[in-house]
Amino acid sequence: MIALDEVVRRIHDLPSLPAVVAELLASMAAEDQVDLHYLAGRIALDQALTAKTLRLANSSFYGMPSKVTSIQQAMTVLGLHSVRTLVTACGVIAAIPRAGNLDFDAFWRHAIATAVWARTLARHLRQSPETAFTAGLLHNLGTLVLATRFPDQYAAVQAWRRQHPDSGVAEAEQAVFGVDHTEAGSALSAYWKFPPAIQDAIRHQHDAGASGLALAVGLAHVLAGPPDHGPAQAEQAWLRLGFDDEQRRQTSEQCARMVNDMCQILV
């Protein structure tokens, strides 16, 4: 077993987020004081981040009628919320080193799919779409912490699941580590100074009584199709949403298109 404070200590060994991502996260708490021109200039200094952000801005994710060619234009056309979402996505994915025996491409594809689904479901659940996207993208960050900081123990988690095929990921993590990915992910999001609402959504996404942002992330996680969920769990999620067959079809097709576009750029 590994104590949560040891997990937190190892989290502090992870690289920091790019400075501009940290500034964008800080802007969530003081949006009336944000200098958009200054932030656009800060983002533009990172050429790789700018290139990916503009590719995302011009993808089907936003369906812009004309091409966005600069961060300043993206700020004007899409707004701070959307640009912050895109830059955060690019920055977080680039910040985590690929170590251990985790399938990183599969991990990020599912994270992006969950983010897209969370954003799509957010308005129906009366949540901020952009905040829901960010929370969805980060929902399994704890898995990255456990897999990259404790690779031997994480291999034991995978072995434990093979021996207990009816178990869930969190159950296996608790058996091996004594903590699961929601606790580790919430701790990492606190270290990276993500807003409390996102920290709480990561921690409580699988709770039976989840509501608000945590509910949006939890339902998105299921509908995005992780390997440990089947048709029964997806049906329960649809019933919770109250979507009819046509709404289900349209939402699924829309999300599939956006996930494909985003994965081509980010993964």
Automatic annotation (TrEMBL):
HDOD domain ranges (all copies): 14-208
SUPFAM superfamilies: HD-domain/PDEase-like
One Pfam family cited in the UniProt record for this chain: HDOD
Signal sequence, renumbered to the chain: none
Record PROSITE patterns: HDOD
The organism's place on the tree of life at top rank: Bacteria
Record's protein name: HDOD domain-containing protein
Organism: Duganella callida
Phylogenetic classification of the source organism: Bacteria, Pseudomonadati, Pseudomonadota, Betaproteobacteria, Burkholderiales
